[in-house]
Amino acid sequence: MQRKYLLILSLLSLLLNAGLLYVFFYRGDKAVVSPDGRTEIKMPEENRAFVMKEMRGFLESVQQINEGIAKNDPKIIAKVGNQSGTCKVNQVPQGMIRSLPFEFKQMGFQTHELFDEMAKMAKENYNRQQTQEKLNQLLNNCVACHKTFKITAE
């Protein structure tokens, strides 16, 4: 009899944990479909300002990496790639990651990783064509994100 209760409690715990993981890590807690068909992510104004600043930084980095490619200067690419890479993830305001939909987080982390990859390529084995291809992958991420998501203040 005690085994039966233990099994039932274990299953309930498992279901509850799975639900919490879904809400906090996959779905995000403030995302709805907006009238234009994109997923609207609602967040406090200070978090929205952080995300918008980060996106402007991405755009500046893309321009500088493109300049590095045009000048065939891997030092520019390495410097800029390091500045926009995964090191930026530690600067995210507390609690913000939890509120974001999984797909948004996935695109964001992938974008930071692409900056890291370009920096590493520029330092270790610079190839202009391969760097341009990575930059194109990164820009495809940006376009996909802007087509899919919209961020508004609560």
Automatic annotation (TrEMBL):
Q: Which organism is it from?
A: Chryseobacterium cheonjiense
Q: Which domain of life is it from?
A: Bacteria
How is this protein named in the record?
Cytochrome C
**Coiled-coil ranges from the UniProt annotation:** none
Q: What InterPro entries does the annotation carry?
A: Cyt_c/b562
One BP term from GO: electron transport chain
Q: Where is the signal peptide?
A: none
Which is an annotated GO molecular function term of this record?
A: iron ion binding
